[in-house]
Amino acid sequence: MAYRLGDAFGTSAELWGGMQLQYNLYQAGKAKRPKIKKLRQLHTNAR
Fold first, then answer.
1. pLDDT tens across the length of the chain (47 residues)
2. What is the structure's pLDDT at 6?
3. How far apart are CA 2 and CA 17, in angstroms?
4. What was the pLDDT predicted at 30?
5. pLDDT of residue 41
6. Structural domain contains residue 1
7. What is the C-alpha end-to-end distance of the chain, expressed in Å?
8. Which residue segment(s) compose the domain that 12 sits in?
């Protein structure tokens, strides 16, 4: 679809793909998500 929009409007497919990605991230950011516990940091004895 991005290629078709790019051809129709004389722009690149990357422009349309980038806008779709930004919209998807915005929508995902608004969604309610469960709380996730932080991972414990592993300590190593590497020198």
1. 999 999 999 999 999 999 999 999 999 999 998 999 998 888 777 66
2. 97
3. 6
4. 94
5. 84
6. yes
7. 52
8. 1-28
What's the number of domains the chain is made of? 1
Closest listed residue to residue 21, CA positions, set 4, 3, 2 = 2
DSSP annotation of 14 reads H
CB 6 within 8 A of CB 15: yes
Model confidence, pTM:
0.65
The pair of three-digit structure tokens given for residue 17, joined into one six-digit string = 């793909």
Output b/e per residue, 11-27; b: 16+ Cβ within 10 A. eeeeebeeeeeeeeeee
Integer Cα distance of 34 and 13 in angstroms: 34
Nearest-angstrom CA–CA distance, 34 and 37: 10
